[in-house]
Amino acid sequence: MKHLILARYGEVGLKGKNRRLFENQLIRRMEEALTGLPVSGISRTHGRLYVTMDGQLDEALKRLSYVFGLVAVSPAQSAALDLAEIKAAAVQAMIEAVAAGYSTFKVETRRPNKSFPLKSPEVSREVGAAVLQQVPGLMVDVHSPQVVLNIELREDQAYLYWRELPGPGGLPLGVSGRAVLLLSGGIDSPVAGWMAMSRGLEIVPVYFHSFPFTSDRAKEKVVDLCRVLAHYCTQVKLYVIPFTKIQTALREGGSEELQTIFLRRMMMRLAAKVAAKEGATALITGESLGQVASQTLPSLAATEEVVDLPVLRPLIALDKQEIIRRAKKLGTYEISIRPYADCCTVFVPRHPETHPDRAVVAQKEAGLVAPELITEAVAAAEILPITTDWEGS
Ligand code: ATP
Ligand code: MG
Questions:
Q1: Where are the domains of the chain?
Q2: How many angstroms separate the alpha carbon of residue 250 from the centre of ligand 1?
Q3: CA-to-CA distance for 182 and 159, rounded, in angstroms?
Q4: How confident is the model at residue 344 (pLDDT cuts 50, 70, 90)?
Q5: Could you please report the per-residue DSSP string of 124-152?
Q6: pTM, whole model, 2 decimals?
Q7: Which fold has domain 3-166?
Q8: Measured at the alpha carbon of residue 377, what is the angle toward residues 235 and 234, in degrees to the nearest 5?
Q9: Distance 236 CA to ligand 2 centre (A)
Q10: pLDDT in tens, 274-327
């Protein structure tokens, strides 16, 4: 038996050529998400996409609910453009709704195909009456129905659907290019990565690992965070960059109050090198204005001045409570709060500088880290391809 899924996407700002590009990319992402499932085709009509499946409908719905660009996905039924056929399909659909425990409904019809002989309200009325007659246990409630049976009368067929899973919205991955995400094991950076992805950016996560100051448990946290993010993109390529030598060299130079700024500047430089390798054109961090000493405006300025790439900070104006709320919703919070230190929490200065002078920072930093150490660290990166574990999700 064939199963049909109706996928809807937002249309804001989609005009002309962009729309085509957006749709093509969205379809590619849907195909990728559905890899391994029995899909027999994806077609498009007027701002909607239809996926035909030979089975595994629920699995397909779940996976599609993680595809950026989609606003909602629904299991759907099709019927010939004939009132009797539409009524039969509606009755069938509402028998399922009753079996699922629902007891009130209404019908909503849209008629882009103006050649259909009845107007939308007439179709709703006729179909509603047929359902009332033939499906016991169901009543009409036009104001707050538990079930809305949607009927769309299109050029080729009628489509009916009533169940709906929300999608993440946003733009399809890749339409905005690619960026390197500086991913610590903390609460903030995975949320920042997700937000950047939702605007169509593919991400390449980079984690700076200071073994043995930071344990392999800290690295595992980052791998697990990537696994959650991978739901939205099927696979991520995590760079684990050995950071111990650089961190040690920085510490040996004294200037305790500037240590965090030094670390950040090094992270930026290394991330920019990964970006060049990966064809990424921006960096993303989980920084939020004023959250800690290294996130005041002067600190951010001193941090980003060492790279030419734009540094995106999606969380810049969110407060911690809001970030936590988003982390919980995303499913990264419980992983992030596991108690393993990351490299920035290992040697926190007692009196961190909140208003670093850029010239002073540059002068005190000069000569602390040999350029070879930077090249060496990037070359020694461990590259981990991390895929989604759909079974476990
Ligand atoms: P998070 O919860 O993301 O760790 P935070 O508020 O603890 O954020 P900091 O530790 O000050 O922030 O780090 C600021 C940003 O620098 C992080 O959001 C992240 O983008 C980047 N960063 C910090 N440590 C690392 C690391 N070890 N590897 C990769 N990126 C890092
Ligand atoms: Mg952190």
A1: 3-166, 177-387
A2: 18
A3: 44
A4: low
A5: HHHHHHHHHHHSTT-EE-SSS-SEEEEEE
A6: 0.92
A7: VC0802-like (3.30.2130)
A8: 0
A9: 20
A10: 999 999 999 999 999 988 777 889 999 999 999 999 999 999 999 999 999 999
Cα separation, 230 vs 272, whole angstroms:
22
Q: Write out pLDDT tens, residues 21-69.
A: 888 999 999 999 999 999 999 998 877 899 999 999 999 999 999 999 9
Out of 10-19, 99-108, 354-363, least confident range: 10-19
Nearest CA to ligand 1 atom 24: 184
CATH of 177-387, one of 3.40.50.620, 2.40.10.10, 3.90.650.10, 1.10.260.40: 3.40.50.620
1 pLDDT above the threshold of 90: no
183 CB under 6 A from ligand 1?
A: yes
Ligand 1 atom 8: residue of nearest CA: 188
